[in-house]
Amino acid sequence: MSTPVPVNDLIAASERTLADQVHALARARAFAEPLIADETLDSGENTLAHADAVAAILRDVGGSEAMQAASYLVHACVHLNRPHEVIAKAFGENFATLAVETTQLMRVQRLSRGALSSGHLVDDAGVQTETVRKMLLAFSRDLRVVMLRLASRLQTLRWHAASKTPVAEAMARESLQVFAPLANRLGIWQIKWEMEDLAFRFLEPVTYKEVARLLDEKRVEREAGMAQLRATVEADLRAQGIAATVQGRPKHIYSIVKKMRGKSLDFAQVFDVRALRVIVPAVADCYAVLAWVHAHFQPVPGEFDDYIAKPKGNGYQSLHTVVRPRLDGDEAGRPIEIQIRTQAMHDHAEHGVAAHWAYKEAGAKGYAGVSASGAYDAKIAVLRQLLAWERDLSGAMRPEGLPASGATDLLSDRIYVLTPDAAVVELPAGATPVDFAYSLHTNLGHRCRGARVDGVMVPLNTPLQNGQTVEITAAKEGGPSRDWLNAELGYLASHRARAKARAWFNAAALHATVARGREAVEKLLQREGKTALKLDDIATQLGFKSADGLFEVVGKDEYSLRNIELLLRPAAPPQDEVPLLKKARSAHKGGVLVVGIDSLMTQLAKCCKPAPPDAIVGFVTRGKGVSIHRADCSNLREMAARNAERVIEVEWGQQRQETRAVYPVDVAVEAADRQGLLRDISDVFTKERMNVIGVQTQSVKGTAWMTFTVEVADAARLARVLGVVAEVQGVRSARRR
């Protein structure tokens, strides 16, 4: 293990000694070298040497300089406390994201191989498709992550072959069953074929050596004959005015074995052991060469394929034909495969997606900054190829007896769709355009009014499919529809999107309540001639954090406007013309001060059940003393209208904390009826140390109406407790009666 190098020293050294180097590749290697030069991978290979080799592989297949640079930064990540932050500071956000995500994918694959080696079947469909899923997820963010992993795995296999050290069976099978098919889908034949041969070499060494021995037999004689044939074909084609280049095609042992096993052939019956590749300038030349070949050689029936007119799913194009040449010697009459293609087709066949994918190192759209302007069609094609590869792989690994839908169901919980800018969006299966809009931006989801899927207008509750391109039509302003929250209508499949829509309606309801409370308070200020007062100051004096907090409780009818009136104009002094009033005050033992009358009997009105600090008014009854009502009591208003002379002023007396009285108040709760509702609401009062002395409940058509009688010492505290009750599941409103 090398001695840790301080992160700041690394960055400073990189910036100071490499100030004259503008290429990220050289800077990345200089940054990582102190960290990984003396390190070894799990395979035993030196880490820096591995990174050098990976960068070379990426360069050979047309990978960008950014991908090559990332091959070093990936291995530096494990030595950094905050790798994303450090690499972003030294190289930029794009490099940091690429390195960190590749590191995460390596960890996932390592865990997967560990599961295999600890007892899972090698061909376990669940394990393999989960590996596929992780690679697809990585691709959905940045295709370069997949490219890095392919190159790294190929180098690991090369190192084991060169050092003659064994490879774990799980890694070899993962290379053959996951990595090589992925390279095939991306059309990177150069990596695909070599990886297949190396993995097969470790999995079936006896068969590999036997086929290799058969290929080597009479190799000198065969190559001499093929050299003569190449020269003859190239010269004759040039004489016909076709600027053709003729090459021998490499022989790949794994493809030969697959063909032998798939078609039950002997080695001598495999045609592509002897093969030529003809590369010409234009498509028309391809068919001209084909006509010349069939005119000068004997075609083998049933062995012709036109992949130019009908390309393979991954974009591969070429003409394939098998003929029998007329030559003297050992090669006479032996079949030979000839492939005919243009230079562009050849580049794509060798390097696949890496040959035409233009990576950019800045910007926020598309894959890790790739804008959609020039590579849109390519991105869609590659995405669909990976999705098709996923289906191929899951189908091929279907356990015996499992229904056809069983394997694909393992990957059915997520889908991948495209924005108009060709960025990939991951959604739950069954997601709709509304889910898509909410995944991009909450406000876009609220304003979603229409959608085009692959250019066609569709209803907003249309389930999306893998690989589709979705474009949202949005209003300039507005909110979601109530129908979206109806699960039966199928507008939202994502729990997150549904929560966002529900939050919008809750906020709208709160806004209406605040507006109603503001209107009531402002009307009161107009009546009192106090419109110059600041609403926030009034709210603060009444114990609220903001004016909106005051408006909310007023709008919910949980706070009496009488409290604001008392703040604006203190109680007027007693009027001498009221014969019942005197100047003296005396405290009643019940806690109510009645102005001017000693030892006057008082009682709390049962109709409104006042409690401190409610604004209260006294009403002199006939023979029962003074009945104490809340100032906003409707019964009091009716009695005062008939007998105004019996209304007297009263107020709560001061009590010591240890002897504070409690007062019964009624709380009305409306909720959706469910099992355990009464228990949950009662638990709130218990936790808040409020004694419940009575409960009345009634349920009508699924709605529960409850009245709780609780004892409180302070009605202001009750308002806060009711806020907690309102948060209980199913509760629609909780207010004091």
Automatic annotation (TrEMBL):
Residues 413-474 form the TGS domain. InterPro entries: ACT-like_dom_sf, ACT_dom, Beta-grasp_dom_sf, NT_sf, RelA/Spo_fam, RelA_SpoT, TGS, TGS-like. Pfam families: ACT_4, HD_4, RelA_SpoT, TGS. It comes from the Bacteria. Residues 666-737 form the ACT domain. NCBIfam families: spoT_relA. Belongs to the relA/spoT family. In eubacteria ppGpp (guanosine 3'-diphosphate 5'-diphosphate) is a mediator of the stringent response that coordinates a variety of cellular activities in response to changes in nutritional abundance. This is GTP pyrophosphokinase. It comes from Pseudorhodoferax aquiterrae.
